[in-house]
Amino acid sequence: MPPSRLIFRAALALVIGHSPLVITSARSAPQATASAPVKNFRLPTFTAEGFRHTMIRAAEARLPDPTRIDATELELTLFTGDATEGIDAMLAAPVATIFPKREFASGPDTVRLERIDLTVTGADWSYDHAAQKIIIRRDAHVVMRGIIGDILK
Questions:
Q1: In the chain, how many domains are there?
Q2: Count of C-beta atoms within a 10 Å radius of residue 43
Q3: Across 134-139, average pLDDT
Q4: What is the number of H-type helices and E-type strands within the chain?
Q5: 149 part of a folded domain
Q6: Strand order from edge to edge, sheet including 104-115
Q7: How far is the C-alpha of 101 from the C-alpha of 27, rounded, in Å?
Q8: Domain contains 153
């Protein structure tokens, strides 16, 4: 997708066209539960070729069942998934619930998404990987750093 089209879609619908924000997949999801919180939680995922794909970090995580992760101080990093192992996007939220099998995440409080060409902030958010869409329900703010071009003609 051309960068100008991606920026336009992000501004209109807060859609992130090629960067999934949910970092786990059903096959890499934790298969255990924990009655006590897990401190300094880390869950990396990798491509089939063995390159870093994503990393979920949380100061504390609870795993009430194998389908859900309740995280505090979430830092979600999305890598390029190739040999460069560059960072494509980062998402931070003080509180989040992640459903790895559904590839869905949400949070009632604030969220901040950073990309090289875009910063999105707001509150009461959700992300649906299947739709490749982030929804900000309150206080949405988008800062675009790129050339929009003639898409507004």
A1: 1
A2: 21
A3: 94
A4: 1, 7
A5: no
A6: 34-46, 52-65, 68-79, 87-99, 104-115, 118-128, 133-144
A7: 8
A8: no
Q: Which of 138, 147, 127, 123 has its CA nearest to residue 15?
A: 127
Q: Amino acid identity, residue 17?
A: G
- Of 1-10, 45-54, 97-106, the poorest mean pLDDT is in 1-10
User: Amino acid identity, residue 39?
Assistant: K
CA 23 centroid distance within chain: 6
Q: Which has the closest alpha carbon to 78: 50, 132, 115?
A: 115
Which H helix or E strand runs over 115?
strand 104-115
pLDDT surpassing 70 at residue 121: yes
**Domain encompassing residue 59:** 3-144
How many C-beta neighbours within 10 Å does residue 53 have?
24
Q: How far apart are the first and last CA of the chain?
A: 19
Q: Give the Cα separation of 14 and 18 in Å (integer).
A: 12
Whether the predicted pLDDT of 60 surpasses 80: yes
Cα distance between residue 39 and residue 49, in whole Å: 30
CATH code for position 32: 2.60.450.10
Residue with tokens 């795993």: 63
Residue 16 lies in a domain: yes
| pLDDT tens per residue, range 98-110 | 987 787 899 999 9
